[in-house]
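Quick entry, no commentary yet.
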Amino acid sequence: VGELYNACLKVEGNKPMYGEDMFYGGYCLGIIQGWRRELEMNCVFERNNPLVNKADVLDASPIALAQAFINYAKDNPQAWDRLGLGGLTAAFQEYFPCTK
């Protein structure tokens, strides 16, 4: 979580990136996009649950997903030594409920 958090800080605010920042920002967004596709299936297959808003994750931009993770990581420094995908899952569950 800590390593991914530091990489994702490069995309915070959707500012232009150059050099090493571009590498780490791309690393962050690549992991987020891959994990997003995995977690979206939880939304897509919840067809029988009228309370699930599938648009929450399906329409979220990669930057919005990165910001959700950044917010989660800032609020949970005790999780920084855990695997990044676990932090992404926790962040997406908090900000995009249909991924639970």
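second:
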Amino acid sequence: MKMWIFLLLLTSAVSLLAQVSDPLAGKKYAVTLYLGKEHDSKQALAFENGNMTFSEAEKYGFTPDTYKWKQKNDSTFTFLSISKSAKNGSMTWEGKVINDHIEGTCIWTRKVENPVNYTFKGSRIDE
């Protein structure tokens, strides 16, 4: 009898863990990138099927790549994604989402130039 209760509790715990869903899944954010304090460009960050991409990714040869996220509290979580391009190096996107607002850094590392360090800020886009 004790074994059945243990298995029932274990099954319930596993079921609850499986229900923890990705808070970024299916969301899109309009962001402005800055070099220092100067406006550089605008991008849209999209989180779909466990991958993150940005609006000009294809133009520069970047493909959607996986991201990791971590819950900080009820309304705040962080994420990290590294996008790669055969021609244009890698872009490391690291950020924080608080409710519908997003901010963070993007480091673009290329073979022939020094890394470019961006900051970004933006908000969620409802489509």
